[in-house]
Predict the structure.
Amino acid sequence: MLLPLRVRGLALKNRIVVSPMAQYKARNGEVGDWHLVHLGARALGGAGLVMVEMTSPVPEGRITPGCPGLWNDAQQAAFRRIVDFVHGESSARIGLQLGHSGPKGSTQLGWEQIDEPLPSGNWPLLSASAVPYGPQNQVPQAMTRADMDAMTAAFVAATRRAAAAGFDWLELHGAHGYLLSAFICPLTNRRSDEYGGSLENRCRYPLEVFSAMRAAWPAERPMSVRISAHDWAPGGNTPDDAVAIARLFKEAGCDVIDVSSGQTTREARPVYGRMYQTPFADRIRNEVGMLTMAVGAISEADHANSIIGAGRADLCAIARPHLADPAWTLHEAARLQTRAVDWPNPYLSGRDQLYREIARQQAMQTAVQVAADPAEVP
Ligand SMILES: Cc1cc2nc3c(=O)[nH]c(=O)nc-3n(C[C@H](O)[C@H](O)[C@H](O)COP(=O)(O)O)c2cc1C
């Protein structure tokens, strides 16, 4: 997990990614001091790539009123400040996830009633079809051709702003039941035009958006797409479909598929467990022949090392463990007693003490085991 990876013109120092995580702390779509400290701390914490949470190209595409956007100069400047800090003070790289909330927009903050409509001040929703996310959620309007063209243009404008803000990596959010995912998932796409029906038709609009963004994004910088590789619901997409979806995005110039799953319908019954989405990343990597990012319940260096070492994915995105520990990579490296990570200069004496302390604890554990059963310990 500590080996470097090159994707297009970008060199990542290792395979650990801080997975995008909504913070619900933006004001008028603008990121602020919270995001500088949150993302800055994780950039200093050893991961090779830090992803910013889902950011919308238009005001109505935010999930909640606390979600960020990138449709004006003030939002671009606020992101530039964070990107400049990461580039100036760390060896991490930083990426932006662009996405539109579709049928799951106009909802409450993550620690309120997640995915439920706002008590007041709701805005109208757009989706592939007029299928609400749940009984309490608004019924979205099915996008017209004009809506689709305007939305593609907004994604392209936000892509140009992301490039100008200095981001190293751009991800398109095509997962979790948001707008583009609602096109891909057969349970939320009931269209009878060329954007509904077969898998190729359901992927057509997400691919149009991706291709327009790819043309506007600098050629040397990578792009990934996050997909839900399994809807975990009868009649939904399966991991076989995910292989076909990945192949279409690869043909459109996608460098990496970020392989998540679910959250496309309330009927989903996922089977959770350690590294539970990694089999889908493994299939895409090895059947399509492209780079993948595994995500979901990867919480220890042993998990990440076994995934990368076995060739099941090229990158491991780690979300909740990074909420508990911004320096997850540095601390996992210390447990392995490997020095193949960079600590920020002001923290070096903390590093040295931590390595000594862990070495002492490990030596004591070995001594206790030897005393308990000398034959068992090599
Ligand atoms: C607080 C929180 C916010 C999240 N926000 C996003 C997001 O903005 N975009 C996204 O694609 N996934 C988001 N996720 C999903 C994570 O990126 C990740 O896929 C998921 O938590 C599984 O990884 P983990 O087991 O390491 O936490 C979020 C997860 C959490 C816990």
Summary: The chain has two domains: 5-342, 347-378. Residues 348-372 form the longest helix (25 residues).
